[in-house]
Amino acid sequence: MYHRTSSPNLRLLLSGTALTVRLNLKTDPSLYSGGVGKLKAFMTPIELESGILGRYAYGKIEYPYTSGALGPSPDVTTKSNPFPPGRFHQDPFSGNSNLSSFYVQTLVPLFNSQKSFYFHLDNTTINDDALLAADANLLQLLSHRAHIGKIVAESKYAADVTTYTTLIKARNSTGIKTLLTNTTQEAAVLAQADAAAKVFSAAWVGSGASVATTFTSDLQNATAKLFRALIDITTEIEVQYLMARFN
Ligand SMILES: O=C(O)C(=O)C[C@]1(C(=O)O)C=C[C@@H](O)C=C1
């Protein structure tokens, strides 16, 4: 079994911190008016470099947004390597296009800070490069968090090989989704994310940050929407992973 040495709470808190930072940057709506295009153009050279540094190598559970070719090759099950239950089996699915669409369509419109960190002599207060860098950082954290669902799915499969095998062979993705969904765990994740959002906003306000009066509720709202979508996207990644388990 795999050692989950990094903590789920740490992933939640890091994503929450990145979201808090991003929410406090004054947005340039024109960056996103055409969809994900400018964001992807910004991320393309970054991801090329990330690929060279090994970020998307096999077993890192990190996947690129801009080119699937940078990511790991899917495993092929053979008689000599049947990938027994409990052994990770790389599948071809990435949830990143779902994540980036959700990000631009639903999350970015919630980034409405009128205060800015940036002060420029020409009186502008928006820094497009900083915005896209914060987006890219947040998206990468979210992607890793969601794709760890592949490891979670492998554990679930190993814990009930018979039922999952029947559903996978019947190509019953709805049945797989029902079997792997754990609403108690989902409620715990959402409650934890909400608690973290409250602590983060209290810390910013308490430390003297000059934020909008709606900052606390804006952060809570954005956090709730983000973690709900993240759970749904993670679930889809788990389902797709299992559907490809015997490939
Ligand atoms: O913890 C699990 O059991 C997961 O599958 C992860 C997760 C999540 O994204 O947090 C996703 C689906 C489940 O319904 C519950 C939680």
From TrEMBL:
Gene Ontology process terms (BP): chorismate metabolic process; L-phenylalanine biosynthetic process
Entry's EC annotation: 5.4.99.5
InterPro entries: Chorismate_II_sf, Chorismate_mutase_AroQ_euk, CM_AroQ_sf_eucaryotic
Cellular component terms per the entry's GO annotation: cytoplasm
Subcellular location: Cytoplasm
Keywords associated with the record: Amino-acid biosynthesis, Aromatic amino acid biosynthesis, Cytoplasm, Isomerase, Phenylalanine biosynthesis
Name of the protein in question: chorismate mutase
